[in-house]
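URGENT: need a sanity check before tomorrow's submission.

F., can you look over the Thiol:disulfide interchange protein record below? I want to be sure the sequence and structure line up before it goes out.
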Amino acid sequence: MTLFNKPLMLVGALFALLGATAQAEVDAEVAKTIKARLEAGNPKASYGEVRESPISGLYEVDVDGGANTLFVSADGSHFIFGDLYQVHAGGGLANISEQRRTTKRAAIMDAQNVDDMIVFSPKGETKAHIYVFTDVDCGYCRKLHNDVPELNKRGIEVRYLAFPRTGLNSLGYRKIATAWCAEDRNKTLTALKNRENVPLKVCKNNPVAEQYNLGNDVIDVRGTPTIVMQDGSVVPGYLPPETMIKALGI
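Structure tokens as predicted:
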């Protein structure tokens, strides 16, 4: 998990009438100074590239894989931790930080190997797909799984990734790994979610730990189910089929 605590409220004030995100290349010495100061302050964290921010005098630095962004002074001595919002001239707000995270999440999920997922596909045309970080012992995971036939009927492909809520050294891990190690993974996952008595069998080189770490460290999964929509936006919990269909625009 990230080494920076999640803010409970927005940090700092909303900045009025911000322009578009700047893409200018950052001076190499400024970038070096910022990275050095941050690494000295918290050497356990991992920092991304230094970017210009829409606010003059502040620079953006992704931390711990991009789940969070720091807005840092040019000398690296101060930073703001939280999301950056744009106040539109005509009214309304836009979360610039979340827009960037959404784009990045979509690219990350698209880069994953679908063969390592347990996929429930429509019999006809696939109109959209969702990624679901799931656990076999979670009530709302079961509720969502019961909706899968209806989602498939409506053209939505469900791509499951494993996220044992109790961690990698737990009975929950052994249960969900059994599904990923089964000859018929779809049938076994369904049986486990239905609380059927399935003999537990964990094979070597299964992708559960990798998917768990992806959810934990990159996507910032905080509970199950966590749905990652096709555009990279995240739904932290259950959605009924009609709401899901509307959200996907189909």
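My own read: The domain at 116-248 is CATH 3.40.30.10 (Glutaredoxin). The two ends are 34 Å apart (CA to CA). If you see anything odd, call me.
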